[in-house]
Amino acid sequence: MTFKKHISSAWQFLFDKNDRTPDWKLPVRPVDLSHFKTPGHHQLNSTWLGHSSLMINIDGYRVLTDPVFEKKVSLVGPTRFNGRLPIDPATLPDIDLVIISHDHYDHLNKYSIRLLKNITQKFVTPLGVGKHLATWGIPDSKIIELAWWESYAFDEYLLITATPAQHFSGRTLGDRNKALWASWVIASPDHTLFFSGDSGYFDGFKTIGDACGPFDITFIECGAYNKRWHKVHMFPEETVQAHKDLKGNLLHPIHWGTFNLALHPWYEPMQRLTRAAQSNQIPIATPMAGETIALYAQTQGQTLGSPWWEKSLGESVTTIKF
Q1: Which of 129, 163, 243, 270 could form a disulfide bond with 125, CB atoms 3.0-4.6 angstroms apart?
Q2: In the prediction, which pLDDT does 316 show?
Q3: What phi and psi values does residue 143 have, to the nearest 5 degrees?
Q4: Hey, what CATH topology would domain 3-312 get?
Q5: CA-CA distance, 160 to 301, in Å (whole number)?
Q6: Which burial class, exposed, middle or buried, applies to 59 when counting CB atoms under 10 A from its CB (0-12, 13-18, 19+)?
């Protein structure tokens, strides 16, 4: 953005309320760890912890994405809408993989990485991000850095591939774009997932879909958008189009309903996304924080969440089926 637009945006952040934060703490469901702990193939479930933090059980492998376990992402950053995590991180079992999309504070959290140090086998990051983990005490042997289209085989069954995204990186004024950012493909013999990290809409989604799809679930960002930074964050309608480009089956929106990072009302991303998904006949998963979505061969008719944000607004609620 130009300097003038920066000043204008800062003014709006400070003084334009616009329902950017709810007037109450949003509902949280305590995490049922049994889903995450279950070993064995032929299973796929995910638990949304808010924002871009997910606990995923893919055929018995335990994967965390962009874990952020603090109420505030930085000293001057926003506080979680729901006030607390739906899980005590100290209760987490051993983790196979932690996947980091990029180094922004709402995706790479020092406190959380240190908590996970002794229970995580491998931390997979884009190029240049591993230095932060090393500084925070993670052994080099546990850090895997990848460029776009590079893959890491955790073992003979689980493959992680870094794929392109349209975003940027940096944690200070002096390290802008000194590290890479990425989206990710997580693949086992039975299932394939896509995790977007942060990205604007671009033709790379179709390229990824052609190369790595179709996907059982796509976890794609749908919040913190604005026309002024449209190149690095998608509008919700573009989230749906990205899912189509990726040849996805179930769309699970992320990066919304947790932190005040933009100028739109906190609930608007899901209002726009659900309309676009329904128009395109795309099934969506809409868990509240802490809720688990489980997919098996017999998932037809299983509830994959509800429009709980409407209930928070006092509107009618209908159950979403897949």
Answers
A1: 129
A2: 36
A3: -100, 125
A4: Metallo-beta-lactamase; Chain A (3.60.15)
A5: 30
A6: middle
Q: Tell whether the model's pLDDT for residue 301 goes beyond 60.
A: no
Locate 125 and state its tokens: 């990051």
The full length of the chain comes to 322
Residue 254 vs residues 232, 237, 320: alpha-carbon distances, Å: 15, 14, 17
**Cβ-contact 107, 133 below 8 angstroms:** no
Measured CA to CA, the distance from residue 138 to residue 131 in angstroms comes to 9
Residue with tokens 């925070």: 136
Residue with tokens 């995706």: 107
Mean pLDDT throughout 281-304? 80
**Alpha-helical runs (H) found in the chain:** 3-15, 33-37, 110-116, 130-135, 204-212, 236-245, 268-279, 308-312
The mean per-residue pLDDT over the stretch 215-236 comes to 96
The two three-digit tokens of residue 234, written as one number: 């998608």
Q: Dig out the tokens for 85 from the structure.
A: 């995590």
Residue with tokens 């390290």, as numbered in its chain: 175
In the chain, domain spans: 3-312
Contact 209, 202 (CB under 8 A): no
Q: Which residue has the tokens 């995910």?
A: 46
Average pLDDT, the chain: 91
